[in-house]
Write a structure and sequence with these properties.
Beta-Lactamase; GGDEF_dom; 55% helix; transmembrane; transmembrane helix; flat; EAL domain-containing protein; membrane
């Protein structure tokens, strides 16, 4: 078994250079090919001379075939000589495995030539000519096989192609004696092949050893050069009392005393009084223990210097220490300053001067190792992208510096403020008795960062959200602590921003649920698990149907029914909102074709609308489905304008030019609503259900809704009240002259077939949509549903 493994190992070593590997293999290939290149003129000359002798042996009997053979042989020789001529003065330092393969093909052509010569002209030749041909072919076989030994595949292919031709020649000759010759030929060829492979392995091993030796010599040279470059380091020697006895200009320069006064320096006492943290050197000196590269700092601040001290006690031949020392002092001031600078850069944010993520995590790790408790506050700026986009990155950098200053102004003992990257900051609180509780500190941070920031003549606003995570024994590592704080921060931003959230285990479960939904989204889109359900809108006065909202529903085979409040944000996070929005738009337009004279309203995600090709995709959808542009209503929310209002308005105007209607959804829940209404004339305002729900409980809600309706009327916009669930709410909506209503009082969301039944006045069987049992179902006897228009929303 050992012999078998040895054989396969040797075989692998023989052909390992045919696979691109380390740079060393490429250098070995270059050396082998260079050796072969040096032999090329002789080899090609031998081929041409031998070819001429074959011509002499065969004579005119070879005919056209011989002429063609000579042409091929001459061409191969010419190509070989041409390659040699080009590379004769330039040897490539490295060669890829392709060079080896090209050599193999060249050898194969030569092998075919000489094997073909034997096969074609040995049998018909006379006795003397046979001897000449056999001698030539045998000579070319042996010489070529060993000349090509550095390229083992080339040698083997060359050898056995010639042997194959020779075997054909012997068979054609037909003499019984040639059977023995064939056996001998096979034996010789086998020996030649194995010998060539052995030569290849030996040559490769020798080259590897030579390269290794050269590398070792290079390392030694580098070490010697390094020693010479540092020869300015000072050698020193003391007597038994510690006084310097070896004096040199370099040593005097280091100690800052005249050379003639070096003998007054008593080294251990000098270290103890002049150097900082000299304890290890003095202690090693006291116990006569050798030491190496102990670092000493002399002075402080910008004038500080650092030495590396190495020394060993001088002993008598019997090993007794006589009290004298010998050593070397290396001035490492520049290297130490560079190291300090690198350490500072590695743990400090370059823009704000705060600790960076690495420093913050190291501090938290050290606190956990000591068993200290504390809190991590993860802080993220709200709407910082708006600052960068509207005022430029230089203004954004100034905002980050101001934020850093405000955070530093709030720190207490044991607090560490850091910038984690971008517009994300953190505060690690490790104080044993903080003045402010963590929640109080988070509230103060939000308050301070919500105050205006003046950059030049500009007055900028950002705000912040904070996630809090406790550092205690329940936290396994720093990564978990960071994840907990990030989960709390995400929940704070998701629930409205400008607030703080303390991490709870339920947030971890929510995160895992979110991750599961994101993973299932793509499969759900691919397998058609999404469906539109429609909720009608009616005229507030006549209760005639004026449209429907189409709500996207997802029924997962394992997770069950997943609400849009979960899967739509997940689609935005994982980049699938474009596909989901396109699916909703297509299905809504197809549904519109089945409901004549009805329009379709589709709610568009901000991320979907800001896609560069969104307007074109809407136009293509209208053309492909045959739906008129005026029958398509697109609903957007004010969050669309928070990131890039200018680009958003540009796309909305492009949609209006197509003839598409645009509605502003959830009006009154965002920021600067009036400014958006002035910048873009929406067709419809949808009053958020939170106002409708408060109509019967708060008088100011009625005043707000009434103001919205009147303002919309002045601007020529229609109004829709969402979430109408009681007849009392409907009566108030009518009294303030709102145009349309929708909600569970009218109808619940339903599939397209049930919508058709609802519009036709037919009874609806089976579940429509799961809703809170406290909501009173709409009574068909109270409101009749004549059809005029409908709308759809995702």
């Amino acid at each position: 078994m050992a012999r078998t493994e040895g054989f396969w190992d040797r075989l692998r070593q023989t052909f390992e250079l045919y696979v691109d590997g380390k740079a060393e293999s490429a250098r070995i290939r270059a050396e082998h090919l260079a050796q072969l290149t040096r032999l090329t003129p002789l080899l090609m000359a031998a081929n041409l001379i031998s070819g001429g002798l074959v011509r002499l042996a065969v004579g005119d009997a070879g005919g056209v075939l011989l002429a063609g053979w000579l042409v091929v042989l001459g061409a191969v020789a010419a190509l070989g000589l041409l390659g040699w001529w080009k590379r004769r003065r330039h040897v490539a330092p490295q060669v890829s495995s392709r060079g080896y393969r090209r050599g193999t093909w060249h050898a194969a052509v030569l092998g075919l030539c000489w094997g073909g010569a034997a096969a074609l002209w040995f049998a018909p030749a006379g006795p003397a000519e046979r001897v000449l041909i056999a001698t030539l072919v045998t000579g070319m076989l042996g010489a070529g096989a060993f000349a090509l030994a550095m390229l083992p595949w080339a040698s083997i292919v060359y050898t056995w192609l010639i042997v194959a031709g020779a075997l054909v020649a012997l068979w054609r000759a037909g003499d019984v004696i040639f059977l023995a010759v064939a056996v001998l030929l096979l034996s010789y060829a086998t020996v030649v092949s194995f010998a060539a492979m052995a030569l290849a392995r030996q040559s490769t091993a020798l080259l590897r050893a030579r390269f290794t030796q050269a590398h070792q010599q290079q390392v030694v040279s580098l070490l010697l050069r390094d020693f010479e470059e540092n020869a300015s380091d000072a050698l020193w020697e003391t007597d038994a009392e510690g006084h310097l006895v070896h004096r040199s200009p370099r040593l005097a320069s280091l100690f800052g005393v005249p050379q003639e006064r070096l003998g007054e320096v008593q080294l251990p006492q000098w270290f103890a009084t002049r150097a900082l943290a000299s304890g290890p050197v003095v202690a090693a000196w006291a116990v006569s223990r050798p030491f190496r590269d102990l670092k000493l700092q002399l002075g402080r601040g910008d004038h500080a210097r650092w030495w590396a001290i190495s020394a060993k006690p001088i002993t008598e031949p019997d090993g007794v220490h006589v009290g004298c020392w010998r050593g070397v002092i290396a001035d490492i001031t520049e290297a130490q300053r560079f190291e300090n600078q690198l350490r500072l850069q590695a743990e400090q944010d370059a823009l704000t001067g705060l600790a960076n993520r690495r420093a913050l995590m190291n501090a938290a790790q050290a606190a956990m190792a000591l068993g200290r408790a504390g809190w991590l506050l993860s802080i993220d700026l709200d709407h910082f992208k708006v600052v960068n986009d509207s005022s430029g990155h230089s203004a954004g950098d100034e905002v980050l510096r101001v934020v850093a200053g405000r955070l530093l102004a709030l720190v207490e003992e044991g607090d560490l403020v850091g910038r984690l990257g971008g517009d994300e900051f953190a505060m690690l609180r490790l104080g044993e008795a903080p003045v402010r509780a963590p929640q109080a500190m988070a509230a103060l941070i939000i308050d301070k960062l919500s105050q205006p920031i003046h950059v030049g003549a500009k007055r900028l606003h950002v705000g912040a959200s904070v996630g809090l995570a406790r550092l205690d024994a329940s936290v396994a590592n720093v990564e978990d602590l960071m994840v907990n704080a990030d989960l709390a921060l995400y929940d704070a931003k998701r629930s409205g921003r400008g607030r703080s959230v303390v991490y709870a285990s339920s947030l971890g479960a929510a995160s895992r649920r979110m991750h599961t939904i994101e993973q299932a989204l793509r499969e759900g889109l691919a397998h058609g698990q999404f469906e539109l359900h429609f909720q009608p809108k009616v005229d507030a006065r006549s209760l005639r149907a004026l449209g429907v909202e189409a709500l996207m529903r997802w029924e997962h085979p394992v997770l069950g029914s997943i609400s849009p409040g979960e899967f739509i944000p997940a689609a935005e996070r994982c980049g699938l909102i474009r596909e989901l929005g396109a699916l909703a738009l297509e299905h809504a337009c197809l549904a519109a074709r089945e409901l004549p004279r009805l329009s379709v309203a589709v709610n568009v995600s901000p991320l979907q609308l800001m896609e560069p090709g969104f307007v074109k995709s809407v136009e293509r959808m209208l053309v492909s489905t045959g739906v008129g542009p005026s029958l398509l209503h697109l609903e957007v929310t004010e969050s669309l304008m928070m990131e890039d209002a200018q680009a958003a308005f540009k796309r909305l105007h492009a949609l209006r030019e197509l003839g598409v209607h645009v509605a502003l959804d959830d009006f009154g829940t965002g920021f600067s609503s009036l400014a958006y209404l002035r910048a873009f004339p929406f067709h419809t305002l949808k009053i958020d259900r939170s106002f409708v729900r408060s109509l019967t409980e708060h008088s100011d809600a009625r005043a707000i809704v009434n103001t919205i309706v009147q303002m919309a009327g002045v601007l020529g916009m229609r109004t829709v009240a969402e979430g109408v669930e009681t007849e009392r709410e409907l009566a108030i909506i009518r009294s303030i002259r709102c145009h349309e209503v929708q909600g569970y009082l009218v109808a619940r969301p339903m599939s397209l077939p049930k919508l058709k039944d609802w519009l036709a006045g037919r009874p609806i069987t089976g579940p429509i949509d799961d809703v809170d049992s406290r909501i009173t179902p709409w009574r068909r006897t109270q409101i009749s549903p004549p059809t005029t228009m409908f709308g759809a929303e995702i």
